Amino acid sequence: xxxxxxxxxxxxxxxxxxxxxxILWGSTYLGIRFAVASIPPLLMAGTxxxxxxxxxxxxxxxxxxxxxTPAHWRSAAILGGLLLLGGNGLVSxxxxxxxxxxxxxxxxxxxxxxxxxxxxEKRTPPRLPVIAGLVLGIVGLAILVLPGxxxxxxxxxxxxxxxxxxxxxxxxxxxxxRAHLPASTFQGVAMEMIAGGLLLWLVGLAIGxxxxxxxxxxxxxxxxALAYLTVFGSLLGFSAYVWLLKVTTPARASxxxxxxxxxxxxxxxxxxxxxxxxxxxxxxxxxxxxVCTIMYFGAAGRGKTAAPxxxxxxxxxx
Length: 318
What we know:
Elements: H1 11-35, H2 41-62, H3 70-94, H4 100-107, H5 110-122, H6 128-145, H7 156-175, H8 185-206, H9 209-212, H10 220-247, H11 250-253, H12 256-272, H13 278-299
């Protein structure tokens, strides 16, 4: 993927692409909350990703994409397990107890985990500004989740699940560049969504979500949210992100990491009546500032390398 925008791409189209990534991915947290209100979370997430993956895979095969090898499917299953089952699946479970805006702010901790994992792997200490960003992020998370009188205090178990989801997402993101996948980025992502969707279904059924699913009790709002997540979150939002990687710099495209939480908090407050008090606003501002610091100084001096496209498939996502 090239990191320089072609001359014929208009600024208006690039702005539209950024708007799609910012708004569509930022809105998926609220979509998840509406969907899990009457659909078991892992079965919901599995349906979303399996449907999107099958559609994209069939489209690519019809357009002449080669048949993947068993090794390709093995890597796709590993990534689907880490990114979609461990990452997005746990976010969906946590949002049964944690407001969507707070969930998005906690998931913004992924860059912190990635930095720490990189330090452990390469055994090289991070730069001082990155350390400062990590400390700032921990302070923001502490303000958000520590006990207090605020109505917006996050559920401790839900927060724990979200932090495990962050770790799973970070591990999958670091594994992604080494994974043996097809040359076509979109084909690899389609395979990950198919494999991840199947894993989400299997785990959901294993823990009893099948018995908890009552089709007569599924609300129209949950069905509309599921359709929105499938089409706008998994297909259109991700497509816009991959296109942005081709026409602009990866650093600019990656700004979704600190814009999505802001969008999620505003939408949760405006459309779902979620609490937005001074405590949440302060914690959110600190976390966003920490993510900006880590992304800016963490990338400095490393050159321009494209973010792993497969990791972007569910980072909305969630």
